[in-house]
């Protein structure tokens, strides 16, 4: 990311809010299984308690990250239309001459094969770029390049 708070699209915000809701529910469920620390149990019980406590910590960390991200997005304002940001649809031309229209997203979504997360090598390279800009990024086969052709799709109004 660019260091400044990054805006996110309405769809990305909705997905993060749903994940946050799911995490809060999961946290309630896990917290309800923790025993009173005064209860004495065998080593297996203690190991289970430690595992659940670790799970609670992981859930709390993810909840904090999502809440921070949503706050930052609120400060950042709307998705930019003149440069690549989270929520932007961008057409890029790769070094081999192929072009592809991609969506820069906040979180991975297996249902969207054209989604590139903003924290992936290509996503980070594209953030803040405008049409005509060249980018370099780390690809599985080594460093790769691409050129930002346009923002949005022909049917977009901005």
From TrEMBL:
Q: Where is this region: Disordered?
A: 30-53
GO function terms (MF aspect)? DNA binding; kinase activity; RNA polymerase binding
What SUPFAM superfamilies does UniProt report for this protein, alphabetically? Answer: FKBP-like (SSF54534), GreA transcript cleavage protein, N-terminal domain (SSF46557)
Q: Which InterPro entries match?
A: GreA/GreB_C_sf, Tscrpt_elong_fac_GreA/B_C, Tscrpt_elong_fac_GreA/B_fam, Tscrpt_elong_fac_GreA/B_N, Tscrpt_elong_fac_GreA/B_N_sf
- Cite a single GO BP annotation: regulation of DNA-templated transcription elongation
> Which of UniProt's keywords are assigned here?
Kinase, Transcription, Transcription regulation, Transferase
Q: Does the keyword Magnesium apply?
A: no
Q: Which domain of life is it from?
A: Bacteria
Q: Is the keyword Ribosomal protein assigned to this protein?
A: no
Transcription elongation factor GreA/GreB C-terminal domain residues are: 80-150
Pinpoint the Transcription elongation factor GreA/GreB N-terminal domain residues: 7-75
Q: Which Pfam families match?
A: GreA_GreB, GreA_GreB_N
NCBIfam families linked: PRK05892.1
Protein name as annotated: Nucleoside diphosphate kinase regulator
